[in-house]
């Protein structure tokens, strides 16, 4: 059986050697950040830590954490560790108001990111003989550019489709014999359904494998996609703060994602105390960028709840594995690929003169997220005219769209009609079965 | 002069309407006229009752979203063309109507129309000038 490694030496490196490599990189990285990022230097000084105190990866726990709040406070250049002259690219998160993350890359950073994606692509069995259809969005979003770069590194013929225009996706896939597709799992399911409706059977479709990520998905969804497209579906994980997709990727065993830990060191911490938990514990996933130059986040708290495992993998990789994230430490929802915080809904309601009595209901129908917001009306707002109530709903939906970037269905409801638990309204009902 | 309409917000759920009517009947409140405007998600129940003050209190205490609105009540003959004649008067006087509904009385041979307009005083004046007989909340109790 083919081994499917892109950088075999790293991917199968004995654990002790990996630890040595990580330690060397960390010592250098801490010095680089301390010298070039006043924001993080201050955090280290507050904790009384100097770069000399970090001798290796075992000293990592001494360093302060970075959170999304730090990223916001330091926006846009506060965490930049290289002169802008040396940077060649930015990428950004889907960017809901006030929480946009802008990440900077030097050519070195782009190269290592693309290497990570190349490892993910190679792990599916793809080689330079393959045709790789990238149907992630291109642009500020990291999905398209990351997999595009990885595909180039592997030497695949790359189809830079970006997302959308399903008819054209199918035409290129069939006419140019795409053998690998990279996109969000919900889009893969949609393309699969469309192909089925058009009468294609799995054996008519040239695809062999797919790499899917950027949103939560289930084993059930995986089985559905694999069946309709006649492929093996691989998971991929990443976040803009760290680099983008390719931070971790799945191998043929499909039992978790190997973390590219020569570049991104993972820890699991207790989200309340910040204490590092032993392997196998469930906790918050924290990443340290070991050798990125321009935007090297140390101990960045992802808010994803996860478990790490060093169990021996049948693929031969020694890279540590992470389970699919099991939830979040904050109340962030990912709806149609967009990050939504209930507090944003609350802000809109207060701006529009409503009490913050609301409930968000998220579901998934035909592989697409539905997004409803119920809002309690006050007696003063109630009127006997239907048209006025519908207009109020429309105004609220538009204000939420402006804040979030996605369109909710807003329903005005009677006061105190939203279910309360121990006096507190239940803010979010997520009916999607994702874990 | 106007009559008083009690508007109730009704969720589109099985049993929500009967809960309201039962509550009113238990308190001996008689519904004279009603109309429901509905959307996919909710309904707006408009009621003319014999004792609107009690009805309002009962429903408010039960947590319903309610609103009391003055509407115009007009008596029209129970014969073809009577409603058209009424509407024509409003039209000729450029009075915009939000909605209307009608009901019959048990005793006399008359129909009644409830009109929801922006300007009640103006509407009442043009109808009276045209010879229509308006009804009041006091009349409602006697019907």
Describe the protein in words.
By secondary structure, chain A is of the alpha/beta class. Chain A folds into 2 domains: 8-328, 3-Layer(aba) Sandwich (Rossmann fold); 333-430, 2-Layer Sandwich (GMP Synthetase, Chain A, domain 3). Helices cover 31% and strands 25% of the residues of chain A. Chain A is built from 11 helices and 22 strands. Chain A has helices spanning 8-11, 15-36, 38-47, 68-73, 107-123, 143-154, 166-175, 185-197, 219-229, 342-351, 386-404, and strands spanning 87-92, 102-106, 131-134, 157-160, 180-183, 209-213, 232-239, 244-250, 257-259, 264-269, 282-289, 300-309, 321-322, 327-328, 333-335, 338-340, 358-365, 368-376, 409-413, 420-421, 424-425, 428-430. In chain A, strands 3, 4, 5, 6, 7, 8, 9, 10, 11, 12, 13 and 14 form a 12-stranded mixed sheet that branches. In chain A, strands 19-18-17-22 form a 4-stranded mixed sheet. The longest helix of chain A is centred in the first third of the chain and has 22 residues, at 15-36. With 143 residues, chain B is of the alpha+beta class. Chain B has 2 domains: 3-69, VC0802-like (2-Layer Sandwich), CATH 3.30.2130.10; 70-142, ACT domain (Alpha-Beta Plaits, 2-Layer Sandwich). Helices cover 34% and strands 39% of the residues of chain B. Chain B contains 5 helices and 7 strands. Chain B has helices at residues 16-26, 52-61, 82-92, 120-129, 137-142; strands at 3-11, 31-38, 42-49, 66-77, 97-104, 110-117, 133-135. In chain B, strands 1, 2, 3, 4, 5, 6 and 7 form a 7-stranded antiparallel sheet that branches. In chain B, a hairpin with a 5-residue loop joins β5 and β6 (110-117). Chain B is globular and about 40 Å long. The model of chain B has no long low-confidence stretch (mean pLDDT 91). The A-B interface holds A 377, 379, 382-386, 389-390, 411-417 and B 5, 7, 9, 11, 37-39, 41-42, 44, 46, 63-67, 69, 98-99, 116.
């Amino acid at each position: 059986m083919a081994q499917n490694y892109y950088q075999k030496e790293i991917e199968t490196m004995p654990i002790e050697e990996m630890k040595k490599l990580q330690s060397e990189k960390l010592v250098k990285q801490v010095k680089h950040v301390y010298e070039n990022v006043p924001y993080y230097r201050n955090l280290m000084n507050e904790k009384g830590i100097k770069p000399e105190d970090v001798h290796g990866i075992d000293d990592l726990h001494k360093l302060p954490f970075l959170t999304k709040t730090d990223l916001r406070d330091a926006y846009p250049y506060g965490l930049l560790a290289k002169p802008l002259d040396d940077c060649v690219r930015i990428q950004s998160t889907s960017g809901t108001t006030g929480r946009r993350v802008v990440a900077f890359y030097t050519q070195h950073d782009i190269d290592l990111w693309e290497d990570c994606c190349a490892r993910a692509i190679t792990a599916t069995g793809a080689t330079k003989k393959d045709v790789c259809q990238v149907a992630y969005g291109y642009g500020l979003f990291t999905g398209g550019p990351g997999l595009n770069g990885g595909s180039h590194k592997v030497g695949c013929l790359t189809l830079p489709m970006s997302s959308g225009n399903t008819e054209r996706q199918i035409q290129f896939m069939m006419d140019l014999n795409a053998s690998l597709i990279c996109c969000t799992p919900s889009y893969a399911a949609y393309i699969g359904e469309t192909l089925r409706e058009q009468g294609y059977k799995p054996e008519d479709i040239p695809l062999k494998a797919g790499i899917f990520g950027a949103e939560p998905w289930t084993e059930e969804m995986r089985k559905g996609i694999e069946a309709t497209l006649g492929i093996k579906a691989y998971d991929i994980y990443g976040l803009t703060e760290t680099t983008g997709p390719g931070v971790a990727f799945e191998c043929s065993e499909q039992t978790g994602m190997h973390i590219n830990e020569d570049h991104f060191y993972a820890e699991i911490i207790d989200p309340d105390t910040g204490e590092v938990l032993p392997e196998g514990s469930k906790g918050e996933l924290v990443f340290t960028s070991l050798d990125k130059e321009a935007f090297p986040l140390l101990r960045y708290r992802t808010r994803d709840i996860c478990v790490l495992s060093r169990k021996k993998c049948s693929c031969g990789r020694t890279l540590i594995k992470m389970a699919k994230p099991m939830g979040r430490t904050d109340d962030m929802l990912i709806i149609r690929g967009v990050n939504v915080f209930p507090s944003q809904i609350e802000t809109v309601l207060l701006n529009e003169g409503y009490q913050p009595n609301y409930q968000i209901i998220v579901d998934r129908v035909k592989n697409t997220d539905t997004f409803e917001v119920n809002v309690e009306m006050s007696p003063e707002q109630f009127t006997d005219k239907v048209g006025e109530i519908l207009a109020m709903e429309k105004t609220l939906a538009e204000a939420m769209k402006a804040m979030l970037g996605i369109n909710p269905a807003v329903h005005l409801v009677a006061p105190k009609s939203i279910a309360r638990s121990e006096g507190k309204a239940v803010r979010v009902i997520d009916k999607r079965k994702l874990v | 002069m106007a009559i008083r309409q009690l508007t109730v917000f009704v969720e589109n759920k099985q049993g929500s309407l009967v809960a309201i009517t039962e509550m009113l009947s238990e308190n001996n409140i008689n519904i004279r006229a009603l109309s429901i405007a509905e959307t996919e998600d909710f309904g707006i129940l408009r009621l003319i009752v014999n004792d609107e003050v009690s009805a309002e209190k009962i429903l408010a205490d039960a947590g319903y979203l309610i609103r009391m609105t003055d509407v115009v009540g007009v008596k029209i003959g129970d014969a073809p063309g009577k409603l058209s004649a009424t509407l024509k008067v409003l039209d000729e006087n450029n009075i915009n109507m939000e909605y209307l509904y009608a009901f019959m009385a048990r005793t006399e041979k008359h129909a009644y129309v409830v009109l929801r307009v922006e300007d009640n005083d103006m509407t009442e004046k043009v109808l009276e000038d045209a010879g229509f007989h308006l009804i009041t909340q006091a009349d409602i109790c006697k019907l």
